[in-house]
Amino acid sequence: MSIKEFVQKFYKSDALIDSEILKTYLHPDVTIEWNSSKGLIHMDYNSIIDMANELNRAYVRSKVRISHIIAEDDLVSVRYSHFVKTIENPREEMLLAHFFTIWQIKEDKLYRGYQMSQFS
């Protein structure tokens, strides 16, 4: 599987809201630098897992729609929109935010992430 296919498979899974699935994709030394509406956030393996657990408590389903994905060497750039379904209203899909992420892949795992997000 190419690194581009690996990243596509990651986003098609429920990894963003299921920490057990997420663990299979993360390198033990993973870090993310995330420019969010709250400013720059630095995340490591444990904080990424904690965030997935928080999302799991609030949402019953997560769906990512990728609009652009480009791979070169050990890097994959992906532009996507993240949709969720809430526990209160599981029939309605809600846009969480738009994202642009550059992933460095190491040892067939997500190793370094550089991410920007914007609410719609």
UniProtKB/TrEMBL annotation:
This is Nuclear transport factor 2 family protein.
